[in-house]
Amino acid sequence: MDLTFGPETKFIGIPPDMKQNRSPFDGYQFYGIGRIDGDTRVLTMSLHNLEGKRLYAVDLEPEV
Q1: Among 9, 16, 10, which Cα is nearest to 57's?
Q2: For residue 5, is it within any domain?
Q3: How many structural domains are present in the chain?
Q4: How many CB atoms lie under 10 A from the CB of residue 13?
Q5: 43 or 27: whose pLDDT is higher?
Q6: Residue 49 within a domain
Q7: C-alpha distances in angstroms, 62 versus 17, 19, 47, 58?
Q8: Which of 4, 11, 30, 38 is the most buried (most CB within 10 A)?
Q9: Distance of CA 51 to the CA centre of its chain
Q10: Residue 40 lies in a domain
Q11: Residue 37: its pLDDT value, please?
């Protein structure tokens, strides 16, 4: 990972000893959903597995 912009790892969806770049047939495929609350303008980003189970979510507050 390039540390130029100070990235942080917030979610890892594979076992720690597994190599990255796995085949889709291994079942480690994820998708994201973004939702904005119309009243608070908070963006909730969530990651889900192939069965639709939510694995991770983070709320991002709007800049004022």
Answers
A1: 10
A2: no
A3: 1
A4: 13
A5: 43
A6: yes
A7: 37, 36, 20, 13
A8: 30
A9: 15
A10: yes
A11: 97
